Amino acid sequence: MRVGVGSRNPVKIAAVEAVFDARETQVDPVVVESVGAESGVAEQPFGERETLAGAENRARRAAAGRDLGVGLEGGVSEVADADGLYLTMWAAVTDGESLGRGSGPRLQLPEPVALRIRDGEELGPVMDDVLGESDVAKKQGAAGALTDGIIDRQEALEHAVAGALALFVTDVYDRE
Q: What is the dotted CATH code of the domain comprising 2-169?
């Protein structure tokens, strides 16, 4: 099985590989391929709808010529009935016909970070600045920094991918 991941980010690719490695059998080996796929949304998606749309767009583009395409998108969202701005992660998986969706955890952003995001900055560079590091998004991510490593970006993305893959691995869902 060939699986395209609509990203060049090593953390996103590793998350998809980990999910498929957990399911792989000798009979059905999986080859995960990185595909540079545009999200079609803002560099810093704002809101669940825009973040999910980015994941779906990446999945569709990554599916071309493959058995499955996987798209992952991180964004920030206001959450109804909860104060603050939250880090959100969405994954989409498609076989070209059906589309599965799953999300990772939501983590409340510290107010100084949220203020900068609301002023138009992107989360990755803001986290780099706040932590005094570089390429946080390609390492532990905001999820790792905000939880002191209890979960990291890869693990959070794995949960989103597993949720999106559910449509394709069980008979519980009605795929039409």
A: 3.90.950.10
